[in-house]
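[User] I wish I could look at a protein chain and see how it folds. I have put the entry right below:
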Amino acid sequence: MTWKVMPPAEVCDVMDFLIALEWPLPEAKVQSLASEQFGWTIETEDGQDYLMNTVTGLSIPDVTTIDPRGAMYVLRFRVTDVTPPPTPESTAFLGDQFALLVREGASRWGKPEMSGGDGRTSASWDVPGAARVRFNLAERSVSASFSTPQGVESDLKAARSGV
């Protein structure tokens, strides 16, 4: 069985592009910029625009954007296909892809902070501009997320208040 994957350099290029933006930005602007820069598409369903990574051909091309107050907080997307229930082959594939992604991230942003639990492993970097990049290894896929400075601040406030 073969699964599709975004090349690690491409994933990190997306992150570098997001790092370089002038935050805060509204969701619609980020979707437009991602569409222009990466060829991703914007699809509309029930009056809501959704960003889709249709370029890579992954099994689930959805790009999650979180914009709770008119300013983007998080952009998250899968880096690999979603595999069937875990097998030795799928576990090895996902582990290898995560390792390659973390290696590429470390070459750009330095040593990551590693964390894990509940069948997940994450590598994260606090990057210039008070933003954060995170790569996540789960039992059925690898994903990447970018937290804007506003998203990082919201997470810090929630952690301080115990939410």
